Amino acid sequence: MKIAVCMKQVPDTEARLRVNEEGTWIVEDDLPFAINESDECALEEALTIAAATEGEVAVFSLGPARVGEALRKALALGADRAIHLSDDRFAGGDAPATARALSAAIRREDFDLVLTGSQSDDMGFGVTASLVAAHLDLPHAWLVMGIDIEDDATSVRVVREMESGKNEIFRVRLPALLEVQAGINHPRYASLKGIMQAKRKPIERVAVEDIGLDPSEVGAAGARLELLSVQFPESGEGAQILEGDASSVAAELVEKLRREARVL
Amino acid sequence: MAGDVWVVLQQRDGRIHPMSLEAVTAARRLADTLEVSLQAALPGSGLDEVAAEAACTGVDSVHVLDSPSLAEYTPGAYSQALSDCLSAMDPSFVVFAHTYQWIDCMARVAHRLDAAILPEAVGFESGDDGLVFTRPILEGKMQSKVRLTQEGVTVLSVQSASFEATETGYEAVEIVAFEGDSDSWTPDRELLGVEDVAGDAVDLSAAERIVSVGRGIGGPDKLAVVEELAKELGAEIGASRPVIDNGWLPRDRQIGSSGQTVAPKLYVAVGISGAIQHLVGMKGASCIVAINKDAGAPIFTVSDYGIVGDLFEIVPAITAALRDSE
Hints:
The complex is a heterodimer.
Chain A: E1 2-6, E2 9-11, E3 33-35, H1 37-53, E4 56-62, H2 67-77, E5 81-85, H3 95-106, E6 113-117, H4 128-136, E7 140-149, E8 155-161, E9 166-173, E10 176-180, H5 192-198, E11 203-206, H6 219-222, E12 225-231, E13 240-242, H7 246-259
Parallel strand pairs in A: 1-4, 1-6, 4-5, 5-11, 6-10, 7-10
Antiparallel strand pairs in A: 2-3, 7-8, 8-9
Helix pairs in contact in A: 2-5, 3-4
Chain B: E1 5-8, E2 11-12, E3 15-16, H1 18-34, E4 38-44, H2 48-54, E5 61-66, H3 75-87, E6 93-97, H4 100-113, E7 116-121, E8 123-127, E9 130-137, E10 142-148, E11 154-158, E12 174-177, E13 190-196, E14 209-213, H5 224-233, E15 236-239, H6 241-245, E16 266-270, H7 276-282, E17 287-292, E18 305-308, H8 311-324
Parallel strand pairs in B: 1-4, 1-6, 4-5, 5-12, 6-11, 7-11, 14-15, 14-16, 16-17, 17-18
Antiparallel strand pairs in B: 2-3, 8-9, 9-10
Helix pairs in contact in B: 3-4, 5-8
């Protein structure tokens, strides 16, 4: 099967975040970035399916120059080639603007399956890939926990997470777009051989005109949502932060749970 | 003059989904701010009873999209039906609860309406900049303020526990049947079944005390410190999603939107940063204690008591303090 994987590079989950002086975004200098967790799971799913079907995996990502590093990692993990939407005019898009760009890049070829994560760990819209599916007129599913390509490869059996610890199982026709949930698998690590091979694999760089779009349709120009400011949540509405060395805060906590909260 | 605000209701087990009742409150506040009416859309099949419930939620009218092709939820049929109904109505906002069903569906509705889309709002205010919405970013570690830059319809979803559920005792309003071309509402999934993955091995919802562990524990070999604390407290052990995904604890221990919802008297969150998906499953606890190395972790915003520091020092110290104080 020929599989497209969409992935995003996001600040590493463990990274310490700081707000910039204007309060409009976080400081990105020296910030460690990583492949978005659920996108890495989508890549793992793609590599497994491609191996079983003698298929091919092409990875798509939109973002600044640093994204090249994430794409190189995807190639080291086993993807065959990468497409980098690397034009400053793609930056600052909302979900529809980004979906417009990604779908235009994917549409240039016929894929049997498009896989991606269900949500980015930075903006967390959770709807971008479903919009890509709408543009490509593909059925989609969000929060996928299981993928079984059926024997005739015209349909796929999907397990989708529902609320309250239940999963829904259904069949969709192929081609389709599936948005996987982190936890569907445990992504592999890159081998030394993979890292060496990745250096020879192609990364195609794509600008707005290359995918037949107008600059007014993508990035900040094509967005209808404007990010005004970011801030840490106001902490401690009612939270008492206990301070001191471990044994004294522990003793204070036990005392408060007993006398103040009366839960012991 | 802005168009009406619409709220799309979800049903579960023949009732209005509790998060949809919160979405009604948010939508009502938006409608009042814009000085327009609030309409509800209710898709499904065999909706008489649930439509009657919807009619008493404080909306101005209920539009029922009732068709056998909507008997099971599929994004294909639902988005087609909803966009057929909504595109004829020229709404300003279409409000969904941020449920797993509606997140799956609302992008396709937005696409058909050529709408702006603003997922997971937790609040909004009206000021000099117009309407400014708050939504979590970076897994809930931070919040962002966003605004819409163009006129036109916006699809919006409302995160759980951001608005109070609406009352359900309002005088019943008119129920209108939407007569659309239901033959074109085509399901794009063939439903094969539903499986219960959490099982019923551990029912944490009845636990009086829970010690819950997150990614900060670092690995399954390090769980002993929380197990000892749980034993000393007579508490059940729970976990946030990353612990389950990594296989450090079984899935029936998961607390949060895709796991169990709990409301114990005492909830001790150890090494849990507090992603919103976790918070919605535990913030009903009477007393919440959080231990985390990151002072900015969102878990502290819902906690009664917080300790910032190394859990491997603090948790054993609490266990010891409990023993000493007996």
